[in-house]
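Hey L., structure's done. Input below.
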Amino acid sequence: MKLIAHDDRLGLPLYGLSEAALYLRVPIKTLEYWAFGRKPVSPVIRVASKQPRALSFMNLLECHMLASMKTLYDLRLPKIRRAVAHLNKTSGFKHPLIEEPLYTNRIDVLIKQIDKLVNLSRGGQLVIPEIVEAHLERVEYDKGVLRFYPFVRESSAAEPKLILISPSLGFGKPVIAGTGISTAVIASRFNARESVPDLAKEYGLKPEQIEEAIRWETRAVAA
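Output:
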């Protein structure tokens, strides 16, 4: 199903490179290459702001998808680049990596059109391979609202969805899912020697939610 978002906040330049790299758990140089390219190679995505360099929430999701394709499927960047270029020419997508669910046979990038699969990495050739649906499980779209649940410990489908990033909550900064409570605030209070049980009781949360917020912020500092 095509993702159509109407929230203007989705396109705002909310995230600097270093911040986005922390959220996505990717090296900042890798993110810079995806978002801004390197002569003579053009960028893969259309960033919200080039001066100063900043990504939008939609850019964040696109780079999440790039990380998934590269890490989980070991797809080569030139093939992803060709797929995006094909979609840019043949569709009205501003953010093709996230606006249309993609598929892969672990070799090329594919898109489903009616009852056929089109190979985007090879200029639109029709193919009939066994496919594996692209990993969009960390992105939820409900009633016009996009929600991103970043990985905390590892890039695994088993990862709980306890940390949420959405431009509709906390100005796009990480919060505990199901709340508007900032993970940074939780970590700050924990570092000030407030205990996990006390914080859980005060906020009406489970200890594991508090622990995940602390873990998320601790990993950000370590990175």
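The beta strands are 102-104, 109-113, 116-119, 125-127, 132-133, 139-142, 145-148, 163-164, 175-176. The chain has eight helices and nine strands.

-- N.
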